Amino acid sequence: MRIDRGEVIALVGENGSGKTTLAKLLSGLYEPDGGRVSWDDTDLAEVDPDELRHRIAVIAQDHTRWPLTARYNISMGTDKGEPALVAAAEVAGADQVVAELPHGYSTLLDRRFKDGQELSGGQWQRIAVARGFHRDAPLLICDEPTAALDARAEHALFERIRQHADGRTVLLITHRLASVRYADRIYVLDHGKVVEHGTHDELMGLDGLYADLYGLQARAYSA
Q1: Strand (E) or helix (H) holding 152
Q2: Cβ of 183: how many Cβ atoms within 10 Å?
Q3: How many CB atoms lie within 10 A of CB 178?
Q4: Domain extents in the chain
Q5: What is the pTM of this model?
Q6: Environment class of residue 118 by beta-carbon count within 10 Å: exposed (0-12), middle (13-18) or buried (19+)?
Q7: Facing residues of 9 across strands?
Q8: 106 to 77, 158, 174: CA distances (angstroms)
Q9: Residues 50-103 pLDDT 10s
Q10: Does the 65-135 domain belong in CATH 3.30.70.270?
Q11: Which CA distances in Å does 19 have to 23, 103, 164?
């Protein structure tokens, strides 16, 4: 598997196919039992873990909901200034969430505090996506980041991610195949192995596992 700088790559497959495990291998969170993972010909096993973490941002489905302000939930205490904060929020659509809060970015996101607010699952996911973009890391891993969003909102979010990648390498993991059809390349996993890869059109032409899964989802929406 090869990922070039600035590409938007998608990992797809059924539950248990190994998508999240592969993402953790690529980001150095897991060590491979065999073979090697390298960045620019440098084996990750030889890289300092802290140095590697600074180069990776992860937007996960099970993101943390910190009982802090909206500003801190996005910036995590880093001092990059207001323009960076606003830019990250706009990419994620979190600016729309913040606009509805009584104290804007200074609103506490926990009802247990005075004047604190509680967000919906979808609103929290937008905050989490903004947090990932605010890190401004060369590799952005999006592991089912839109599970709490409807199909329209997910498609819009992925389009914004593509448009604002700004040279980042983006790794998308999702079950909704309609959202990854415009990825630069799609890797299809099955029981821990890459069984197909290519663009959406190339994979549909193969009439293999990807085409089968895509057809199943398409028929479900059109039924």
Answers
A1: helix 151-163
A2: 22
A3: 16
A4: 1-55+137-223, 65-135
A5: 0.82
A6: exposed
A7: 171, 185
A8: 13, 27, 32
A9: 888 888 888 877 677 889 999 999 998 787 888 999 988 988 889 999 999 999
A10: no
A11: 6, 39, 24
- Number of other residues whose CB lies within 10 A of the CB of residue 53: 15
The upper half-sphere exposure of residue 71, i.e. CA atoms within 13 Å in the direction of its Cβ, equals 13
Locus of tokens 């819009």 = 156
CATH numeric code, 1-55+137-223? 3.40.50.300
166, with CB counted inside 10 A (0-12, 13-18, 19+), is: exposed
Q: Is the pLDDT of residue 157 over 60?
A: yes
**Structure confidence at residue 108 (pLDDT):** 93
Tokens describing residue 33: 């039992």
Amino acid at 195: V
Q: Which residues contact 121 (CB under 8 A, 6 or more apart)?
A: 148
Q: Which runs of consecutive H residues, i.e. helices, occur in 27-150?
A: 49-53, 70-75, 82-92, 94-99, 121-134
Mean pLDDT to the nearest integer, 178-206: 91
CA distances to 18, 19, 25, 145, 193 from 189, in Å: 7, 7, 14, 19, 5
Whole-angstrom distance, CA of residue 204 vs CA of residue 209? 9
Q: Which H or E run includes 197?
A: strand 193-198
- Indicate the residue type of 87: A
Contacts of 167 (CB under 8 A, 6+ apart): 5, 6, 138
